[in-house]
Amino acid sequence: HEHAHALWQISLAEQWADDELEASSAELRTALAALPAVPGSWLWGKADGVQRSIMRMMAWRAAADWIVLCCLLLLLVTGYRLPHLCAAFHGQGRAARLDKLRAAVIAEVQLLGLDMWQLGCAISAFVLVVVSVVRLPDFLGDLLLHCSTLEDVSEAGFRRFWEALGALWELVVMLTLWNTYKFLIRAAVFSLLMPSWGFLGLRLGARVVLWVALCCLPWTMQDPTNALLVAAICGFVSLTVAVRKGEGKGEAGDIAVRMDGVRFSWPNILALVAMVTDALLLMYARSLRSWLGAPAALVAAVLVSVAWLLAASLPLAVEGFEQESRACRTSARYHAVVHMLRRGVLLPAAATLLNRAAEGGRWARPSTTLVLFVGASSVMGIGLQRTDEVPAALGLDLVFPPLYLGGFAFTQLLLLSAEVLGAAPWLVLVLAALGPCWAFGYLWALGAIGEPE
Q1: Over the stretch 38-81, which tens digit does the pLDDT of each residue have?
Q2: Which string of b and e fits 227-246 if b means at least 16 CB within 10 Å?
Q3: Terminal C-alpha separation, the chain
């Protein structure tokens, strides 16, 4: 009886356990049935926040791969950084080859962008220097001697450009507007009597009277060009007195001695080019008369002549004003203007005026008078320009004594007048020999002209 009761208890426990297991299974099936039906993909089975994070990451990775591909194509097109790319790709490191390629491409593209920036800066600096013109020879010298990288080129270019702007600004602010007007009027007055300084051996009053009389000759003679013969005689006498006294011999060449040679600069280039152009003008003056007779040539000649007379008279106009006189004497810009006019355009201007005087008409007398001013100031009055004060910053090493330049200008004007006015061939030949004779005679009588060695 006791054993039967125990078996009955066991069977009841087994029946209860089966009922509980069946109830749990039914509850689990009910919960599973309540879940939404989704595909079996691993992404879509995750939460929404996780899905968005994964999508953003994959989008960025895809965009980065496309960017790296474009950068790689850029490197292939430019070409010159491919050796560096290959070296970086095959370098040491345990990273995956694809990751190493990405890192190498990005690094080389950054360096390519830096190179392009430096190239753009170098090109901009070169363009600015070329436009400003003033410091172009100095920049070319830096480029050939001191620049080894694009950074050096851009630095030299911008430095020369700012120097050119500083030079132009100094020219503008050297004198104020009122002082400019005042000294311009004074220079205009002094330019009327400045050529009389060249009549050596006479008192100041006699010089002024002689010069005024010489200026009146073109207006009183029937042929105004005959006044040029009287002016040539006066110029010859003045040069003879200057040679005997050593007047205007100066101490030229001191800049060349300091610099020991000829620098590559615009003033030196202009001086050398002017030697060639003056020789060509003297050779073909008769053939160029049709060009010299153009109205535009006459206007240009008058403007050049007036500018030359004002520039040559400016030191006298500012005399007595200590600050302005010192600024004028030591200004590289002032000396640049004077030497540019004297050596570059003064002889063509004189040729144009002589041609107009030879043609006759209403412009013959004014043209002859202006030729007298230009010739007297460039031959006899050139001693007013003190070559010992030419600043080294100007870059002009071909500096000669005033007396030498005055005598050489005298021979040039004589030959030019003979050709334009139609002198006899034998006279032209004789006058053409005066230039070399003056150069060798100066060396024999007065010594070296101070040319650079």
Answers
A1: 554 555 555 666 667 777 777 877 777 788 778 778 777 777 77
A2: bbeebbebbeebbeebbeee
A3: 147
